[in-house]
Amino acid sequence: MKFLLVFDFDHTIVDENSDTWIVKCAPEQKLPNGLRNSYRPGHWTEYMGSVFVYLGDNGVKEEEMKRTMTAIPFTEGMVDLLGFIGENKELFDCIIVSDSNTVFIDWILKAAHFHEVFDEVFTNPAAFSSTGYLTVQNFHAHHCTKCPKNLCKRQALKEFLDKQLERGVSYTQVVYIGDGGNDLCPVMFLKKDDIAMPRQGYTLEKKIAHLAQDYTPVECSVLVWSSATDIRSYLKVLIKK
């Protein structure tokens, strides 16, 4: 009996958007209007690349970025939840599928000593260039018309599950914990024994509700959470079954 926990990162593990939080490093903690208005829907990673160039051009160094990112608050109850998962790793495999980037997630998890809770992190690869600028790339190429061009979370999840099956690992249940519109695609991939946990009041919950109104509900069960304490309560019940 083993369960797979799939977490989004921004507004799920941390209570902010890591990509917008980094703007605290910018002069006067804001971006020029021209840069802000350059975002094109579905091209967030390219936009963040421009933001990182702007920060680099303004002399923002790696140390300052790291100091800023590791001050990001965790969602209410999340520290206790991740501690609980860490204590029960024999029952839970745990992955992150996020539109953030490897540098930010690595910094935040390591600073809080949670990196060992997660078996894998699927997110946009980032690194500092020889000139000290942070650069970011698309996670992968895909053909899903519903998702931003840099990341289809359904494809990332499906490929992970397929690899696990090849290793002889299958899961009693997949629990998907997220908040955003780009979490709907992987939620629609879940089976009837799985569970989607959308954050209360956020886009994913609203999109799932709209599907139900249109008589095309998701196949899996749905349990809404407002604090990570709700998730922990569910997992405690799950492992006692």
From TrEMBL:
The active site is at 8 (nucleophile), 10 (proton donor). Belongs to the HAD-like hydrolase superfamily. PHOSPHO family. One of its GO terms (molecular function) is metal ion binding. This is PHOP2 phosphatase. Gene3D superfamilies: HAD superfamily/HAD-like (3.40.50.1000). Its cofactor is Mg(2+). Mg(2+) binds at residues 8, 10, 179. Substrate binds at residues 19, 99. It comes from Podargus strigoides (Tawny frogmouth). Pfam families: Put_Phosphatase. Keywords: Hydrolase, Magnesium, Metal-binding.
